[in-house]
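All the exercises in this workshop are built on plain-text protein records. Sequence and backbone structure share a record, each on its own labelled line. The question running through the whole workshop is how a given chain folds. The record below serves as our worked example for the rest of this section.
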Amino acid sequence: MSQKEFYIARIDKIARESFNAEQKAVVKKIIEATDEKDLDAVWGLVSQRIKIGFTFDEAPEVNHQAVSVVKENESLFVHSPIEKTGGGGGGSY
């Protein structure tokens, strides 16, 4: 087993709560594209993320078929007392 195969196999063993399937696929691509001399450093970045517990709530799978709709909420705007200068009139940001 090559060093790349070893690290890729280890990625599959990482809990889904730490890496979802899409994240695992990205890390595998990175490892596959990494020069042999840099593999330990790349793995160090991945494993350090896991060791320190840098996780959010369970990472959701990405739904590439979904569409988000965003609506402005003017009550959340922050208006500045500083007026705009130059280019057509005053107003607040």
